[in-house]
Amino acid sequence: MVDNVGQIGDMMAITSNRVPDIYTACDALEHSHSPTGFQAESWRWQVSRELETVCQSLEIQGAQLEGEGGLYSQVLADSPHLAASVERLRRRHRELGEQLNAALHEVCTESHAYDPGRLEALEAKVHDALCHATTFQRHVNDLNFDAYELDLGGPG
After folding, report:
1. pLDDT-derived band of residue 15, with 50, 70 and 90 as boundaries?
2. End-to-end CA distance of the chain
3. What span, in angstroms and rounded, lies between the C-alpha atoms of 85 and 98?
4. What string of H, E and C letters represents the secondary structure of the chain?
């Protein structure tokens, strides 16, 4: 348990500063309309921008979580019993980054404009990546709560 209120504030800043970016970007993508026919290129452009935001946010968050003095090092120092959870989150972070980048690459490079089946598959891939991103963020918040009994809020 952290006794220093400043350290708790720092931990909140590390995670909560990035939460709105990830959740906002995921929410915007979740509510994008399914593409059909001539709308596909517009959808791809919108989704690529929003996916790029999620990827950047995840990259920044990863540096904050794993960097010197980041949440993971603090949790390991203050609550070593959570080491397995930290390692699991590190692995999931790498996997999520790969999944989001693969979805972004596919959205940006492949034309699906006139193939409804491929558009549906791409939309499902993006949706799956978003579900994993929001689940990952929820797990980071859970780790913080478990280590410091501090609820950062957020959906879920």
Report:
1. very low
2. 24
3. 20
4. CCCCHHHHHHHHHHHHCCHHHHHHHHHHHHCCCCCCHHHHHHHHHHHHHHHHHHHHHHHHHHHHHHCCCCHHHHHHHHCHHHHHHHHHHHHHHHHHHHHHHHHHHHHHHCCCCCCHHHHHHHHHHHHHHHHHHHHHHHHHHHHHHHHHCCCCCCCC
5-148: which CATH topology?
Answer: Four Helix Bundle (Hemerythrin (Met), subunit A) (1.20.120)
How far apart are the C-alpha atoms of 8 and 27, rounded to whole Å?
28
Secondary structure of 24-62 in the HEC alphabet?
HHHHHHHCCCCCCHHHHHHHHHHHHHHHHHHHHHHHHHH
Does pTM surpass 0.85? no
Are residues 61 and 154 in contact, defined by beta-carbon separation less than 8 angstroms? no
Are 122 and 130 a contacting pair, CB within 8 Å? Answer: no
| Per-residue pLDDT reduced to its tens digit, 81-118 | 999 999 999 999 999 999 999 988 888 876 655 677 77
What are 50-74's pLDDT values in tens digits? 888 888 888 888 888 988 889 999 9
